[in-house]
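Input (structure):
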């Protein structure tokens, strides 16, 4: 275990897991009683090389970016910039959209209750079709322009369900939420995230898009499963998808973000009141997963979705918060 791996005991534990699971790299943090107790990162930036990760490396956190977007929305609601019930129709009064989109609210987008499909152009959850890949994968313009264009195209599509009738995990919904925040606030999503979340929380490694684009020698690659060996890839979601899946961060800075959800005040810099925090952590209604949602196959009756967080009960532990992510 290297000096740059962080806490040696945690690194030793992670390395055993990493080797057994054949992972390129693995990072983790432990928070105890409201303090970051340990952080560690082990493995290599590129599978099969001697280019070791450090505890300060940034990892692309995929759909865990959604918790950041929801938290940014909460800070803006706290400041009175907009409301949980601000609608797409209010934000885009002159946009040509199907009538069922006009009353979709920010809280519905953030809780996967807007009735949106997974991605633009089709209703199938968790897949990206050829038309989507061809039109939207490549980031040809600024992220703000791409998000506005994505929203403009999305609001012409049929909804998968009526708003608030069911829960259906939607990457589209989070891209629209990011666009809505920047439209109302009059600043880019990236600027808002840096000013309201990254800087106040002291998250100096946080940014957008694959970290190897910033420094290919000193940041980890993404990897794809390829037989028994993970294959390094440089391509990933374009930066305009940051609200749903394209934020990167070091494990310590991620722990700072988690800590903010446990102790939601940083003296003089950022705070969330109890009501706002409760809204972030609680499903907004009793809606169940849509019939064809893959979450129905998880076999977890208590599984639901708050704002940027899945919620879960296990025995006497109620309202556990968690989120997976994969690009």
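Output (sequence):
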């Amino acid at each position: 275990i290297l000096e740059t791996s962080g806490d040696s005991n945690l690194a030793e534990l992670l390395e055993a897991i990493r080797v057994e699971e054949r992972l390129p790299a693995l990072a983790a943090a432990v928070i105890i009683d409201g303090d970051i107790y340990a952080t560690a990162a082990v493995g290599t930036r590129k599978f099969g090389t001697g280019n070791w990760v450090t505890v300060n490396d940034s990892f692309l956190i995929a759909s865990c970016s959604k918790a950041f977007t929801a938290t940014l929305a909460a800070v803006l609601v706290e400041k009175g910039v907009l409301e949980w019930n601000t609608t797409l129709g209010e934000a885009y009064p002159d946009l040509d959209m199907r009538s069922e989109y006009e009353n979709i609210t920010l809280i519905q987008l953030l809780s996967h209750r807007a009735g949106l499909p997974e991605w633009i152009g089709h209703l199938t959850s968790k897949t990206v079709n050829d038309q989507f890949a061809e039109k939207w994968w490549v980031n040809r313009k600024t992220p703000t322009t791409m998000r506005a264009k994505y929203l403009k195209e999305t609001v012409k599509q049929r909804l998968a369900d009526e708003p608030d009738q069911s829960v259906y995990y939607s990457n589209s919904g989070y891209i629209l939420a990011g666009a809505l925040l920047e439209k109302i606030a009059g600043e880019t999503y990236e600027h808002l995230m840096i000013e309201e979340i990254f800087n106040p929380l002291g998250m100096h490694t946080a940014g957008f898009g694959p970290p190897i684009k910033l420094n290919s020698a000193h940041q980890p690659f993404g990897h794809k499963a390829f037989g028994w060996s993970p294959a390094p890839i440089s391509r990933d979601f374009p930066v305009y998808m940051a609200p749903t899946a394209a934020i990167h961060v070091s494990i310590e800075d991620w722990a700072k973000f988690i800590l903010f959800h446990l102790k939601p005040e940083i003296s003089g810099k950022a705070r969330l009141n109890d009501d706002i925090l409760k809204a972030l952590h609680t499903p907004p209604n009793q809606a169940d997963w849509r019939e064809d949602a893959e979450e129905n196959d998880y076999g977890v009756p208590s599984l639901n979705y708050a704002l940027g967080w899945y919620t879960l009960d296990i025995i006497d532990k109620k309202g556990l918060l968690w989120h997976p992510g994969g690009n």
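Notes: Residues 123-128 have pLDDT under 50 and may be disordered. The CA atoms of residues 117 and 123 lie 5 Å apart.
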